[in-house]
């Protein structure tokens, strides 16, 4: 069955959440959003391109920072309303300089930083 | 710094996306949604509880199927608008009987099933 980005289920803003996971280590790096055109661009170019909700613009990950995400494989879930991107990440995925955006854990009711920049 | 679910950033519906990841294998199992009360219940009980958008009700994962998710650790991202749940999953996470909801890959422009039920 051939894949058409239009057959995914987007929210009222026309967006779908995309989880980026390191294809080598399986670490979850970040979650960002895509519209149908971002999905198509990502598949065409092999460079992960999101839709920035704050800037209302395409966001080719790493285009300015160099911290690109090369697409290894795109997967969709049973409801077709979430994407899982298996990626090869250059440098940190997080704008804070950390490998992953999920560097804060809740332990015994407190927030704990579990990952340092760098 | 003590953790208060009210300090997370929820969308216009009062919801935040939560990624469930197998704490042992690092496999991404599913993505579902929580409101502040679901976050609090999950932390209090150690049983992952989502908010069902279709049923508009709390959804204690596995309450009827037995396919519960035991919380190992909750993490939040840099923007405080996405949760990563490290879980111990009993049985399949997906309602289709597959371990993960992300059983469809896009390969060479086609949808390919990469995981069987059971």
UniProtKB/TrEMBL annotation, chains A, B:
Keywords: Amino-acid biosynthesis, Cytoplasm, Histidine biosynthesis, Hydrolase, Magnesium, Metal-binding, Zinc. Gene3D superfamilies: 4.10.80.70, Phosphoribosyl-AMP cyclohydrolase. Its cofactor is Mg(2+); Zn(2+). It is found in: Cytoplasm. The keyword Magnesium applies. Pathway: Amino-acid biosynthesis; L-histidine biosynthesis; L-histidine from 5-phospho-alpha-D-ribose 1-diphosphate: step 3/9; Amino-acid biosynthesis; L-histidine biosynthesis; L-histidine from 5-phospho-alpha-D-ribose 1-diphosphate: step 2/9. Mg(2+) binds at residues 77, 79, 81. Binds 1 Mg(2+) ion per subunit. Residues 30-103 form the Phosphoribosyl-AMP cyclohydrolase domain. It catalyses: 1-(5-phospho-beta-D-ribosyl)-5'-AMP + H2O = 1-(5-phospho-beta-D-ribosyl)-5-[(5-phospho-beta-D-ribosylamino)methylideneamino]imidazole-4-carboxamide; 1-(5-phospho-beta-D-ribosyl)-ATP + H2O = 1-(5-phospho-beta-D-ribosyl)-5'-AMP + diphosphate + H(+). InterPro entries: PRA-CH (IPR026660), PRib_AMP_CycHydrolase_dom (IPR002496), PRib_AMP_CycHydrolase_sf (IPR038019). GO terms for cellular component: cytoplasm. Its EC number is 3.5.4.19. One of its GO terms (biological process) is L-histidine biosynthetic process. GO terms for molecular function: magnesium ion binding; phosphoribosyl-AMP cyclohydrolase activity; phosphoribosyl-ATP diphosphatase activity; zinc ion binding. SUPFAM superfamilies: HisI-like (SSF141734). Homodimer. Catalyzes the hydrolysis of the adenine ring of phosphoribosyl-AMP. NCBIfam families: PRK00051.1 (NF000768). Belongs to the PRA-CH family. This is Phosphoribosyl-AMP cyclohydrolase. It comes from Rhodosalinus sediminis. The gene is hisI.
